[in-house]
Design a protein that fits this description.
sulfite reductase (ferredoxin) activity; Nit/Sulf_reduc_fer-like_dom_sf; 6 domains; assimilatory sulfite reductase (ferredoxin); 847 residues; single chain; Arc Repressor Mutant, subunit A; iron-sulfur; EC 1.8.7.1; alpha/beta; FAD/NAD(P)-binding domain; 39 strands; globular
C-alpha cells in the first residue's frame, strides 16, 4: 500500500480524496490529509451564508471527517511547514514527520491586502475563513454595543468577494461602503453597462459604492477608524474588511524548490504534475501551464484528473469554464464565455432597462455564409433566468435571433434543450455535458432528477442546473408519473383542483367519479387533508374526526396525538412562540404528575407529555383546554411551531419584537392542513437565535422591518431557507406568508416539504416570488381569501372531541371493556421518569 499525502483541506482537497476513495476499490492508496484549519473541509463558496445562522455544520461538506474510513487519516490544525523532496517526507508545525509516495499540494490561496498605510490596525480584517467571520462578528457586536448610531464599515474591493463581504456586513446590521479601484463593480465579470445597473441595484439595497478610487490611508481615531480615499472622500468607520482578490499560496512550493510562475502559482503541466514527478498541485495554488483559476469547478476537475493518474489512468486538464452565476443581495448577476467581446469581429447585442431592473448582453460572431452566428458570450444583470440555456450554447450556432433571446419573453421560450449540442456543459460545477446526461437517461435508466444526480453528479453542488435536468428528461421522452397512487391517476395538486372546482365533499364521491378501487393509506389521508384545507363542508363536518373524515386519517390524526413505540401517545399543547404563563405551566406539570407522563421540552419550544393511553387522552385534554390551552397539532401534517428568540423585549441585540410576531403567526396558521408538516421561526436580529433559516418559513428582524425566508428545513437533508423579500412591514410580511402557505398547500405533492417544492418548481424561488409578490398568475386575491377563511373558521380539534359524545366514544382502549388498561403496555424508571418497556425487545439502559 502506497501513501498519498494531501497538503490542505479545502473543497478541492476533499474532492480529490472523495474521488480517489470512490475509485480505489482495491485499497492501493492510504491517504493522509494535513490541514491548517481546525475543522473538516467546508463550503467556502457559501461562506457568506454562515452569517445567516452562524452554524458551522451547515457549511461542513458531507463526509469530510472521513469517519469509518480506515484508509484516510485527517490531521487538523497542523499545517505542513516543509517538504523534503529527496527523502519524500513532509514536516508539520507540530514536528510530525510524514513520508509519502505521492504528494498533492492543495494549499489554496490567501487574501490580497493592498499595502495601504494602516492596513494592519485593530479593526482591519480579511474575509476568507470561518475564523475571519467570527472575528468580524465580534468586532461588529462590540461596535453596535458601544455606538448610538448605526455602525459603519468599509469593504476594500468591489468584485465578487467584496460584494459578498458587503452583504455579510449589511446582514450583521452595518452600513457598508464598497471601495473599488476599477471604474465599475465586478469588473472581471460584467461590462460597463452591467456595472452601472449593478451599482444602482446594490445602492438601492443600502450599500454606498465608491468606484474609480482606493483607500489612501487608514488611521486610528479613538475607538474607531478614519479612512481617506484617493478621490478625497473621508469615512468614519468601525471596521475595515479587505476583500480585494486572492493570491496563490505557493510558499511551500517555493521553499522546496518547485517551479512557480512569475505572478505566483505552482507551475504544473496539463496533468497537474509539478516540476517534481511525485508532486501534484490542484486548486487555486496551481498554475496549470502558467494559469491560475480562482473558481471551485476547475479545481474539482484538477482533483479528478490527479485521482485518475494515481490509479494508473491518463487525464489532462481540458481548460475551464469561467462562467459565473450568482445572486448578490437578491440581485442576479451572470457572465459567460467572451463577456467583454474581445474576440475579433464580434458583435454585441444589448437589451437594457434600468426601470425594469435588468441588463442583458449577448456577444455573437459575424454572420457566416448562411447568415448564422455563433454565441460567444454574454452578461446578465438583474434577470439571469436565461443563463442555464445560454451558457451551454457558447461556441455553437444561435438557434434564434439574439434580440429575441434577450427579450423578457425570450430566453427559455426562444431556446429549448433540443437546440443544445451534446457537448454543451449542463453542470459546470461537475463538468457534466448534455450528452452524459442523456446517456444516463437512455442507457442507465435514470428516469428522475434524483437518479440523474446520483449517476452523473449533475446538480449536486450549486443546484442551479436542476431545472435543466428536468427539461432533459422531458426532451428524452421520459414521462414522469404524477399519479398520487394506484387509485388516482392524478397528482395531489390536480386532486386539489378537482375538489375545489367540483365541490365534492367526501372521499367516496371523489373516488367513484375520478378514481378506482377503494383507496389506500396513501390517498385517503391526502384527500382528507385537502378536504380539511378547502373546508367545503359545514363547521362540524370539517372536523378531522367528523363522519367519513374519521375513517380516512392515519394513526396520529385518528387519535389527535402522536403514537409512540410502545403503543402509548404523546400530548403536545400549543405554546405559541414558546411564550407561556406560570399558571399554564403549572397545569401542564399537574397533568404530567396526575397521569404519570414522561415530560420533555422539545426543540420547538413546547412541552411534550409522553405515555398517555388512548382512554386517558380526553381527560388530559380536558385539563389543558380548561386552562386555556389547545391542540398543538403535533400529530398532523400542519403547522407545528413558530419558534422565537426573546427579541427586543429582553435582548440587547434585538431590533424587533420577535415573540409578539411569533405568537401572532402561530395563532394565525394553527390547524392549517398541508402536504407535510410546517415549521417556522422568528429571530429578533441577525444573530438568528431562533434558527429561522432552517424552517419552512423564517422571519428575521432588520432595523427597517422583517426579512422573509422560505423553503428551509432541518432533518436528514437540511436546507437553508432563501430570502424571498426584505425589509417588509408586518402587514406585507403576513400577506406574503399567507400566499406562500396557500400556494404550497395547493400545488405541492403529497408529503413534499417546502424545500424540495421550491427546488423542483420550474423557475424556483424567482417564480415563487413572481407568483406571491408580483401576482404573476393573478391568483393572489384568491390565496388571500382562502387564508382569511382558514383563520375565520379555525376551531380547536381537542375541544371539538370533548364537546361531542360520539367522537368522545372513540377514545377507549377496548370497545367492549372501556377503562381496562392495555396489558401490553408497561414502563420502567429512568432518570426519575418513566420510559416504555417493549415486550420482546432487549433492554438497553443509559446511565
Amino acid at each position: 500500500m502506497r501513501t498519498l499525502v494531501v497538503v490542505g483541506n479545502g473543497m478541492v482537497s476533499h474532492r480529490l480524496v472523495e474521488a480517489l476513495r470512490a475509485e480505489d476499490t482495491e485499497g492501493a492508496w492510504r491517504v493522509v490529509v494535513l490541514a491548517e484549519e481546525p475543522r473538516p473541509a467546508y463550503d467556502r463558496v457559501a461562506l457568506t451564508s454562515y452569517v445567516d445562522g452562524w452554524d458551522v455544520q451547515a457549511l461542513t461538506l458531507s463526509g469530510s471527517d472521513y469517519a469509518g474510513d480506515d484508509l484516510v487519516e485527517l490531521r487538523l490544525g497542523d499545517p505542513v511547514t516543509s517538504v523534503d523532496r529527496a527523502a519524500k517526507k513532509v514536516t508539520t508545525a507540530s514536528g510530525h514527520v510524514q513520508a509519502y509516495d505521492a504528494l498533492v499540494l492543495a494549499t489554496g490561496s490567501r487574501p490580497f491586502v493592498p499595502p495601504v498605510p494602516g492596513h494592519d490596525l485593530p479593526g482591519c480584517f480579511v474575509y476568507r475563513t470561518i475564523e475571519d467571520l467570527d472575528a468580524i462578528r465580534a468586532a461588529v457586536e462590540h461596535a453596535k454595543a458601544t455606538k448610538r448610531g448605526r455602525a459603519a464599515a468599509m469593504v476594500v474591493g468591489g468584485g465578487l468577494l467584496g460584494l459578498e463581504a458587503a452583504k455579510a456586513l449589511r446582514d450583521m446590521g452595518l452600513s457598508p461602503h464598497v471601495v473599488e479601484m476599477a471604474p465599475r463593480l465586478m469588473p472581471i465579470q460584467v461590462d460597463d453597462g452591467g456595472g452601472r445597473l449593478l451599482r444602482k441595484l446594490v445602492t438601492d439595497l443600502d450599500l454606498t459604492v465608491h468606484t474609480g478610487t482606493s483607500a489612501e490611508k487608514i488611521e486610528q481615531d479613538g475607538d474607531r477608524l478614519f479612512t481617506k480615499l484617493t478621490n478625497g472622500t473621508e469615512l468614519d468607520l468601525d471596521l475595515v474588511v479587505f476583500s480585494a482578490g486572492v493570491r496563490p499560496r505557493d510558499d511551500l512550493a517555493r521553499s522546496s524548490g518547485l517551479a512557480v510562475g512569475e505572478r505566483g502559482g505552482i507551475i504544473t503541466d496539463l496533468a497537474c504534475r509539478t516540476s517534481d514527478p511525485d508532486i501534484w498541485a490542484v486548486g487555486e495554488c496551481a498554475a496549470v501551464e502558467g494559469r491560475c483559476y480562482g473558481l471551485v469547478a476547475p479545481g474539482y476537475t484538477m482533483a479528478e484528473i490527479v485521482a485518475a493518474q494515481l490509479l494508473g489512468r491518463a487525464g489532462e486538464f481540458p481548460g475551464a469554464d469561467l462562467s459565473t452565476k450568482l445572486k448578490l443581495m437578491g440581485v442576479d448577476v451572470a457572465s459567460f464565455g467572451d463577456a467583454h467581446a474581445t474576440t475579433e469581429n464580434s458583435v454585441e447585442v444589448v437589451l437594457s432597462d434600468a426601470v425594469g431592473g435588468y441588463y442583458k448582453k449577448l456577444v455573437v460572431s459575424e454572420p457566416d455564409d448562411q447568415g448564422g452566428r455563433l454565441l460567444l458570450g454574454g452578461v446578465l444583470v438583474g434577470d439571469a433566468s436565461a443563463y442555464n440555456l445560454l451558457r451551454p450554447l457558447v461556441g455553437s450556432p444561435l438557434p434564434a435571433d439574439p434580440a429575441a433571446m434577450l427579450a423578457p419573453e425570450g430566453g427559455s421560450s426562444a431556446v429549448g434543450v433540443d437546440a443544445l449540442p451534446d457537448e454543451a456543459q449542463i453542470c459546470s460545477c461537475n463538468a457534466v455535458s448534455k450528452g452524459a446526461i442523456t446517456s444516463a437517461i437512455h442507457d442507465q435508466g435514470c428516469d428522475s432528477v434524483a437518479k440523474i444526480k446520483g449517476c452523473t453528479k449533475a446538480g449536486t453542488t450549486c443546484g442551479s442546473c436542476v431545472p435543466m435536468l428536468a427539461k432533459l428528461l422531458d426532451a428524452c421522452g421520459v414521462e414522469q408519473s404524477k399519479a398520487l397512487c394506484e387509485h388516482f391517476a392524478y397528482s395531489r395538486q390536480e386532486l386539489f383542483q378537482i375538489l375545489s372546482a367540483t365541490r365534492i365533499t367526501t372521499f367516496g364521491e371523489l373516488i367513484a367519479k375520478h378514481g378506482t378501487g377503494a383507496g389506500c393509506e396513501i390517498c385517503k389521508p391526502a384527500v382528507a387533508s385537502i378536504l380539511a384545507t378547502l373546508d367545503t363542508t359545514d363547521r362540524d363536518g370539517g372536523h378531522v374526526l367528523a363522519g367519513e373524515q374519521a375513517t380516512l386519517q392515519d394513526t396520529n390524526d385518528h387519535f389527535l396525538a402522536n403514537m409512540q413505540r410502545n403503543g402509548t401517545y404523546s400530548v403536545v399543547p400549543r405554546i405559541p412562540g414558546g411564550e407561556i404563563t406560570p399558571a399554564k405551566l403549572k397545569v401542564i406539570a399537574e397533568v404530567a404528575e396526575e397521569f404519570g407522563l414522561y415530560t420533555k421540552i422539545t426543540g420547538g419550544q413546547r412541552i411534550d407529555l409522553f405515555g398517555a393511553t388512548v382512554d386517558q387522552l380526553p381527560h388530559i385534554w380536558r385539563r389543558l383546554v380548561d386552562a386555556g390551552m389547545e391542540s398543538g397539532h403535533a400529530y398532523g401534517k400542519s403547522l407545528r411551531t413558530v419558534k422565537s428568540c426573546v427579541g427586543s423585549t429582553w435582548c440587547r441585540y434585538g431590533v424587533q419584537d420577535s415573540v409578539g410576531l411569533a405568537v401572532e403567526l402561530e395563532l394565525r396558521y394553527r390547524g392549517l392542513r398541508s402536504p407535510h408538516k410546517l415549521k417556522a421561526g422568528v429571530s429578533g436580529c441577525a444573530r438568528e437565535c431562533a434558527e429561522a433559516r432552517g424552517k419552512d418559513f423564517g422571519v428575521i428582524a432588520t432595523e427597517k422591518g422583517w426579512n422573509l425566508y422560505v423553503g428551509g428545513n432541518g432533518g436528514a437533508l437540511p436546507r437553508h431557507a432563501e430570502l424571498l423579500a426584505s425589509d417588509l412591514d408586518k402587514d406585507t410580511l403576513i400577506t406574503y406568508i399567507d400566499r406562500f402557505l396557500m400556494f404550497y398547500v395547493r400545488t405541492a405533492d403529497r408529503l413534499q416539504r417546502t424545500a424540495p417544492w421550491v427546488e423542483e418548481m420550474d423557475g424556483g424561488l424567482d417564480h415563487l416570488r413572481a407568483v406571491i409578490v408580483d401576482d404573476k398568475l393573478g391568483i393572489c386575491e384568491e390565496l388571500d381569501a382562502a387564508m382569511a377563511k382558514h383563520v375565520e373558521n379555525y376551531a380547536d380539534e381537542w375541544r371539538g372531541v370533548l364537546e361531542d359524545p360520539e367522537k368522545l366514544a372513540r377514545f377507549t382502549s377496548f370497545v367492549n371493556a372501556p377503562g381496562t388498561p392495555d396489558p401490553t403496555i408497561s414502563f420502567r424508571a429512568e432518570r426519575e421518569q418513566k420510559v416504555p418497556v417493549l415486550l420482546g425487545v432487549p433492554e438497553v439502559v443509559s446511565r
